[in-house]
Amino acid sequence: MDAQTWFDRRTSRWQDWPLAQLVAAKRRQGATISVVIPARNEERTVAAVVSAIARALIHEVPLVDELVVVDSDSTDATAETAARAGAAVFRAADVLPSAGSFRGKGEALWKSLAVTAGDLLVFIDADLTSWGPHFVSGLLGPLLAEPEVQLVKGFYTRVRTESDGSTSTEGGRVTELVARPLISLWWPDLAGVVQPLAGEWAARRSLMQSLSIPVGYGVELATLMDTAARHGLDAVAQVDLGSRAHRHQANHDLALMAAELLTVADRRRPGGAAAAADLRQFVRDETGRVHQVERAIPAHERPPFAPAND
C-alpha cells in the first residue's frame, strides 16, 4: 500500500466519531480506557488538561475509566496541581523502582503501563493551551471501530505565537526538518502520516507491551515505525483533531530531540546500530566568549513491558 492509498483509507476527522457511538462500541466490546498525561514542570497547564478530560469524558459521558498523570521528576507543583484537578498521579521514579529511572517522555509512557489497566491507552501532552476533550474521543474512534487498528496518530493545525496570528499544518521544526525527510527517504510508505511526532496518540495496550520504548522524545517515531513494520500500514490510522497550541522549545533543546530521532531511526534501518553519543553545541557566555557544551543524546530503550502476572 502506498502512502496516498493509506492516507485516503486511514484518515478521519474527530467529528466522525460522536461520543454516543464510542460509548456504545466500548460497552459492546467490554473495553476499558485509560488516558495518560506525561508531565514535567507543567503546573501552569496540567490542571486545565486534566479537569477538561475528567469533566467531559468521565463525569458527563462515561467514556474514560482512568485518568493518570505520570510526573517525570517535576521541580514545581505539577503533581499536586494535577491531583487536585482529578488525576491519579504517579511519580515516574517511584514506579517499578527496581528497574531504575530515566528522564524522558518515553520513560513516563513505559512506566504508565505498570499503573494503568485500560485496554486502550490515550496519550495527551500536559502543556496544551488550545485544544479540547475531543482529542481523546477522536483518537479512540478508529481503535473502537476497527479491530485491526493498533495505533492512532493525531494531527492538527498548530497555532503559532507570531504577531500575525498565523497558523500552519506543519508539524513543528523537528518534524519538518528531521522526521519528515527521514521518513520520505527511508520509510516512504509512512509519508502519508501528517505529523509523525504528534504528542497526542492512542494505542492498544497489547501493542505497547510488545514494543521497545525509547526513554525520551523518540517514543513517537519508534512506535510508528515499529507498529507498521510488525503489523503493516493498515494497523495505523490518523485523525484530524482540529487545532492545538503549546509552548515552544529553544533551538538547542530541539537539536537534542533531533539527534535522538536520528538515533532511533538508525537503529530501525537494516544494519543500523546507533550507539550512545554526545551532541556538541556552542553557547556564548555573559562575557561574550563562545564555548562548547556537550549533552548526552538519550539512547536507552526500555524492553517490551512484562506484566506483573506473566
Task: Describe the secondary-structure layout.
Blueprint: H1 3-10, E1 11-13, H2 19-29, E2 33-39, H3 46-59, E3 66-71, H4 78-85, E4 88-91, H5 105-112, E5 120-123, H6 134-145, E6 151-159, E7 167-168, H7 173-186, E8 201-204, H8 205-210, E9 213-214, H9 219-231, E10 236-244, H10 251-267, E11 278-284, E12 290-296, E13 301-302
Parallel strand pairs: 1-10, 2-3, 2-5, 3-4, 6-10
Antiparallel strand pairs: 5-8, 6-7, 6-8, 9-13, 11-12
Helix pairs in contact: 2-6, 3-4, 7-10
Characterization of the model:
It is a single chain. The strands form three sheets. Strands 1, 2, 3, 4, 5, 6, 7, 8 and 10 form a nine-stranded mixed beta sheet that branches. A two-stranded antiparallel ribbon has the order 9-13. A two-stranded antiparallel sheet has the order 11-12. The model has no long low-confidence stretch (mean pLDDT 91). It has ten helices and 13 strands. The longest helix is centred in the last third of the chain and has 17 residues, at 251-267. The protein has one domain: Spore Coat Polysaccharide Biosynthesis Protein SpsA, Chain A (Alpha-Beta Complex), CATH 3.90.550.10. It has 310 residues and is α/β, with parallel strands linked by helices.
